[in-house]
Design brief:
By secondary structure, the protein is mainly α. It has 17 helices and no strands. The chain is globular and about 60 Å long.
């Protein structure tokens, strides 16, 4: 067990830092502004659902000793290819946003253009996959950046002096319950490619089989814990600002939280947090997206790191040349809402197929959790997609 701690933490932080991107920072700040202390209830509910999703998916991957797309193809021929297509398209679209976020981080820190900053950030991400031990370096990079984000956000949360007692009380007795906010947080933390980032990393590192389930559970819960800690402290930082009646900048809500809490120093800290969040999300998105297509080609398996680098280059080129294609990102976001119920539903079917999981018996409570998430996310994901399609073609 001891020798695997680096791998377990690496997978946990890869999942967590994949989740904590520019969208994560903005969502948390905006919802705090809307719901104030009652947002604590939304975070608590989403944490419970997130853990249920992660445990369902990671355990099935571990006991089957197969990647999600291969499991899906065993459930229904062709389903794995369909899910892979959704994952890769969604991952590419959101990676354009992640690259843009990294560019914004450099812009805040150094005053250079977002495009130049994006290229520097992409070069840093590419460097990770140029070394011989890319997996180990990726694990360590995710851990260091994750700890750095936590420390900086904790500092800003303390300086903003939030009403912690009120936040704690409203976490268990909210003034209002926003279901859409819960679904948004669940989708943003374990939606799309993020669900599989750590699970596939553990598989690649050899952590698999029924005997590894304890380690898989530890890593999955650790990943949600890290992402949740970042969200909780960012929530407290934003709550400290809005509870004083200060107005956040609508153009960049998370940046104004840092600035209003800790002045210009806080604004520079935001640049570091945004850069860290964006670069780790670029790495996580590229790695996980390619892990979904390498089963289909021996060439991709052989040159996996180069394909990952190509994924990052394409994302960066799109951002630098044509910016963030708004309609593409809107559609990708809507499709992302459908990936979770499809992929999680597939894993739940697979959990009860002996041809896939052998003699493994999946916990009933996890199955119930999973079914609830599938139904809720399928309804709201479908509704959102129907709302966005007319805009795409208008």
């Amino acid at each position: 067990m001891k020798k695997n701690w680096s791998v377990l933490l690496g997978a946990a932080f890869l999942m967590a830092t994949s989740a904590v991107g520019p969208g994560f920072l903005t969502q948390t700040t905006v919802f705090t502004q809307q719901l104030a202390a009652s947002f604590g209830f939304v975070i608590l509910t989403s944490i419970i659902l997130d853990i249920g999703v992660q445990l369902n998916v990671w355990r099935v991957i571990a006991v089957s000793e197969k990647r999600a797309q291969d499991i899906a193809n065993m459930v229904l021929p062709g389903l794995g290819a369909f899910i892979s297509l959704l994952i890769v398209l969604g991952g590419l679209a959101f990676n354009i946003g992640n690259v843009g976020g990294a560019g914004l981080g450099f812009n805040v820190l150094l005053g250079i253009s977002s495009e130049t900053g994006a290229m520097i950030a992409a070069a840093a991400a590419i460097a990770v996959f140029l070394v011989r031990e890319a997996g180990k370096l990726m694990d360590r990079f995710a851990q260091v950046m994750g700890f750095l984000m936590i420390l900086l956000i904790v500092y800003v949360a303390v300086t903003s002096a939030p009403p912690v007692g009120d936040a704690l009380a409203k976490t268990f007795s909210p003034d209002e319950v926003d279901v859409l906010a819960i679904v948004t947080l669940v989708g943003g933390t374990v939606g799309g490619y993020i669900t599989f980032a750590g699970g596939h990393r553990l598989l690649d590192a050899g952590v698999k089989g029924k005997e590894s389930l304890g380690q898989v559970n530890t890593s999955a819960v650790s990943g949600i814990t890290v992402a949740s800690l970042i969200r909780i402290f960012l929530f407290l930082a934003a709550l400290g600002v809005v509870s004083k009646g200060l107005v956040l900048d609508a153009a960049n809500p998370p940046a104004s939280v840092f600035r209003l809490s800790a002045g210009e120093v806080g604004y520079k800290l935001f640049g570091i947090v945004m850069l860290s969040a964006a670069v780790t999300s670029v790495i996580g998105s590229a790695y996980t997206s390619v892990s979904f297509i390498k089963s289909f080609s021996s060439t991709i398996r052989k040159y996996e790191n180069w394909v990952i680098i190509g994924f990052i280059v394409v994302s960066t080129a799109v951002f630098v040349t044509i910016g963030q294609p708004v309609r593409l990102l809107i559609l990708a976001g809507s499709l992302n809402g459908l990936i979770l119920p499809i992929s999680l539903g597939t894993m739940l079917f697979a959990a009860y197929r002996p041809a896939i999981v052998g003699q493994y018996r999946h916990p009933v409570l996890l199955t119930i959790f999973g079914v609830v998430v599938v139904l809720v996310m399928a309804y709201l994901g479908g509704y959102t997609l129907m709302q966005q399609l007319p805009k795409l073609f208008s």
